[in-house]
Request: fold
Amino acid sequence: MSAIALDLQGVTSGYRTSVVLRALSMSVAGGEAVALLGKNGMGKTTLLKTIMGYLPKRAGTIRVNGVDVTRLPPHRIARAGVAYAPQEHAVFQDLSIRDNLRLGLADASAFDERFADVGPLFPVFESRLKQHAGTLSGGEQKMLLVARALMMRPSILLFDEITEGLQPSVIDRLAEALLWERERRGTTVLLIEQHVPFALKVADRYAILKQGEIIDHGHTNDAGAAEAIFSHLRV
Reply:
């Protein structure tokens, strides 16, 4: 791991008159994976949308690889090397799998090269590139979101509960893909999760978010890490 890739200092944001994140500060080192956990409604999705520029920052700063992106719009943040896979299914239903994957590329001519890397991680797509994305199952659409993010070869990946509603075999496939991405490219990952075993498998550190503030954190290989996380989720 290297210098700080994602740095949030005193970030406050929310929706209209509602403040959700309260002077939140956290950082993720280059090549590190951090899992952010917490009960529903605590601000986890708000955090990712704030990082991506979909929600305005009321206070604080956000830096990506040392560059201040606090006031940049989402497309500029994506160009800075940040890929985002949201919780809701954000595939384009009427487009083919291939066209959905191409949306992650600034240069469409790079498709074959990029898919040669990403395709083997998701073999379900390799013979179905012409199929409409809207005909895929929920789990397959989640995998398509992840594959599209990986096609970008970003420096930072943001994932919002990508395991929600998925079968164990699909969750295992996603874990393998993320571990491969980190080992092969040194990609930085910040993921929102409710599936604790998945988070412990793919992340180096965890943080617990409650009412817009980080109340606990630790390393996933610490003794008692799983119990500490579950204790917060049960309360």
In short: Helices lie at 44-51, 74-79, 97-102, 111-118, 138-151, 168-185, 196-202, 225-234. Residues 31-54+73-234 form a domain with the Rossmann fold fold (CATH 3.40.50.300). The chain has eight helices and ten strands.
